[in-house]
Amino acid sequence: MSTTTVTPLTAADAETLVAAARRAADAAGVPVSITVLDAGGHLLAFRRDERAVLISGETSTAKAYTALQLNASTADLVDLVRPDGPFHSLPTALNKPLLFIAGGVPIHRDGRLIGALGLGGGAPEQDHGFARTALQAL
């Protein structure tokens, strides 16, 4: 049986993601909060633009956590929590900060989940776009 070691998400990786997300959001003139979590859900990096609404710090973190726990982009999960969706009760069933709004993306390396990135402060589609752009920098 062979085992493949995947390099975990590092603090340097997290800073790269934050810088790339910030550049994308700044270019669009959107003040945001950015959260990077490692594979265990621990905070690796956080940045809130001083002009971003205060709740964006909470939403960016909850989006990252949701993307990590479900290993899926939060943009792809929105329909699952609608009243007739299969995950309808999931946001309230657990005592965890799940948030099914676009802006959270899982981070993979060599096909393995190594963390998640969440953005909050812009429209959901903007946050998702900034997160996708940031992933390309990694």
Helix percent reads: 25-40%
Question: What's the total number of strands?
Answer: 4
Q: Tell me, what's the shape?
A: globular
Please report the distance between the alpha carbons of the first and last residues: 30 Å
Main beta sheet: 4 strands, antiparallel
Q: Count the helices. How many?
A: 4
Write the H/E string, N to C.
HEEHHEEH
Order of neighbouring strands in the sheet with most strands: 2-1-4-3
How much of the sequence lies in strands comes to 15-25%
Global structural class: alpha+beta
What does the average pLDDT come to?
Answer: 93
Instruction: From the alpha carbons, calculate the radius of gyration and give it in angstroms.
Output: 14 Å
The stretches of 5 or more residues where confidence is low (pLDDT under 50) are none
Secondary structure topology:
Layout: H1 11-28, E1 33-38, E2 43-48, H2 55-70, H3 90-93, E3 104-109, E4 112-120, H4 124-136
Antiparallel strand pairs: 1-2, 1-4, 3-4
Helix pairs in contact: 1-4
